[in-house]
Amino acid sequence: MAESVYLKLVGARLRGQMSYRTSFLLQCVAQAINQLAELAIILVLFNRVSALGGFSVAEVVLMYAIAGTAFGIADMVAGQLDELPTYIRTGTFDVLLLRPLGTLAQMMASDLHLRKVGRIVAGLVVLAYALSRNDIAWSAGTVALAVLAPVSGAVIFSSIWVTANAVCFWVVDGQELANTVTYGSNAFTSYPITVYGPWLRRFFAFVVPGAFVAYYPSLALLGRPDPLGGPALLGWISPLVAVAAAVVAGLVWRTAVRHYRGTGS
Amino acid sequence: MIEVRELRREFTVTTKVGRFRRERRVVRAVDDVGFEVAAGEAVGYVGPNGAGKSTTIKMLTGILVPTSGFVRVCGVDPARRRRELARRIGVVFGQRSQLWWDLPLRDSFELLRAVYRVPKADYASRLRECVDLLDLGPFLDTPVRQLSLGQRMRGEVVASLLHGPELLVLDEPTIGLDLESKERLREFLADLNRERGTTLLLTTHDLDDIERLCPRLVVIDRGTVLADGALDELRAEVAPERVLVVDLEKPAELVGLPGVRSSRVESNGLRHHLTFSRDTTAAKVISAVAAQAEVHDLAVVEPEIDDVVRRLYARR
Predict the structure, then answer these.
(1) Same domain as B248, residue B159
(2) Span B132-148, average pLDDT
(3) Which segments cross the bilayer (chain A) (predicted)?
């Protein structure tokens, strides 16, 4: 029953966006182009070098495709949290609190960024291509991983989004900081983490669990050991990391909303 | 229906002092507010800007948690059981919308039906009734963004009633509306209170709203309750004088009228404004006037409600 409410909210959002049909389609196309532009950067880079952090062009494209698809899904589901300061300032957030539903679910469902479908589709196309170009030992495990990796990645990115934006409940101008973490982690995860310095690597790999979006699952898909010496297991636990990240994000959001209702702004 | 005792709410305000230092200051937006509203009442909650009205409303509806004090709405602690309370009360904010901007009004209602899990039959009958009374029919299928403010406000009120709340809280419901829209909304709300017994609590700057809707009013300023009572009583208490306006057939001078404190003469002695206290009655003054001159027309003017409120503020 409760789920159907959220489905209806999503449906309403879709109909709302469709009332500006041309603009919506153009935005979808723009999103797809955006996604492919990031791919172009990688390809240009490989014109100059033959390997990046020890990985070939096909391997890097695989990482990029998993990360890009995951980010596209997360951006669709959680991207509107960037609007949180506006929600707070205009009192729209108070309206959410007046309804008998959770605030986070309401924000996600009723303001879904559907134009990001363009980004997701482009990501999936590249992903299919990358999977076919790499030498992958297909088995039940790797097939499951190929499907689960983008989904887990999406959950991880969404959790990052929720956590980073929850800062806005304390600091109304926290948006810039939140963006650094959300969009920054997207940029980070599209490349093998071996190209980064150790501190940045540790921060984005384990504090913000970005390395579990694309890097480790790609290693497992490719059957390659981690050049940094991490155990092979890391490549398979992204779904668990995703669940943990979601739990943390949920707790942070709850604390943040409690803070908002406690001190207001 | 509403029970509030010793309600307090503090905010921390940070202000810049010098280039880097910031000073934190605690401001009490609501300070020791207490009142009760019985089921079926219609109460006006008035006060100047920044008096603490909205903060109180936010605590009653569970948006904000009180710093201290006791609140029960429909027998429920709003801060702890926000979602449960949400099903039982309706809230209309004049300045923010709960409708879906890009969708027709009808779709917004349908969504709210799902959000509040209203049974289909109840929903259909409530909607039909509201649509008839507020005449929403002609624009039910228009996207909300294209509605006029008056139309949208009517939609907002209906949206807050679809789940059949026991209590309707309205924060500045008539703000920005033209006279006709205001009148129509007031009529509807008065009806709702009378016929369906829905309890009303409304904040407003438009004192005509109070005059038309609320037999009782709670006046607050700087976070505390200044006065609580029937409009008539408050009027008698703080504005004890009424004015008798008489038009005479021929210009005349009126002297020695009982209880008349001051008078003002217009139109070369034809019209007299006589201010008299509550110790005497209008009838006595009128007969005293009639004894001295021939009366063409007369009217007794009660003090304006904004006058009453202004005097309450001044009395502090």
Answers:
(1) no
(2) 90
(3) 24-46, 53-74, 144-172, 203-221, 233-253
Chain A hits for B111, CB-CB cut-off 8 Å, are: 8-9, 12
Please give, rounded to a whole number of angstroms, the shortest distance from the CA of A213 to a CA of chain B. Answer: 34
Contacting residues for B261 by C-beta, under 8 A, at least 6 apart: B241, B275, B276, B277
Residues of B with Cβ-Cβ distance to A19 under 8 angstroms? 102-103, 143
Which residue did the predictor score with more confidence, B262 or B168? B168
Residue percentage of chain A with pLDDT more than 90: 34
Q: What is the pLDDT of residues A109-119, one digit of tens each?
A: 877 888 888 89
Distance to chain A for B150, nearest Cα, Å: 20
Q: B41-56: b or e for each residue (b if 16 or more CB lie within 10 Å)?
A: bbbbbbbeeebbbbbb
pLDDT for B91 equals: 94
Instruction: Give the list of residues 6+ apart from residue B21 with CB closer than 8 angstroms, or none.
Output: none
CB contact under 8 A, B62 and A97: yes
Residues B88 and B227 in one domain: yes
Domain count within chain B: 2
- Which residues of chain B make contact with A109, given a CB cutoff of 8 A? none
* Residues 49-108, chain A, touching B (beta carbon < 8 A): 90-92, 94-95, 97-101
Tell me how many domains chain A contains.
Answer: 1
Whether the ipTM is more than 0.85: the answer is: no
Closest residue, chain B, to A91 (C-alpha): B96
> Domain range holding B284?
241-315
Q: Which of B81, B111, B144, B168 to probe the A interface (max A CBs under 10 A)? A: B111
What pTM value is reported for the model? Answer: 0.81
B197 backbone φψ class: left, alpha, beta (φ>0; ψ -120 to 50): left
Q: Which of B236, B261, B290 is the last residue before a domain boundary?
A: B236
B36/B98 same-domain check: yes
CATH of residue B107: 3.40.50.300
The whole-number pLDDT of residue B200 equals 94
Number of H helices, E strands in chain B: 10, 13
Residue B175 sits at the chain A interface (C-beta within 8 Å): no
Average pLDDT, chain B: 87
Interface with B, mutate which of A98, A106, A170, A265 (most B CBs under 10 A): A98
Decide if B97 and A5 are in contact by the 8 Å CB cutoff. no
Are B103 and B143 found together in one domain?
A: yes
Residue type, B289: V
Q: HSE (CB half, 13 Å, CA atoms) of A98? A: 27
Asked if the Cβ–Cβ distance from A91 to B95 is below 8 Å, we say yes
Condensed to tens digits (0 to 9), the pLDDT of residues A77-114 reads 998 888 888 888 888 899 999 999 889 988 888 778 88
Distance CA B285, CA B274 (A): 9
**Residues B255-278: pLDDT tens digits?**
778 888 878 888 788 888 888 887
CATH code for the domain of B259: 3.30.70
Q: How many whole angstroms from its chain centre is CA B54?
A: 12
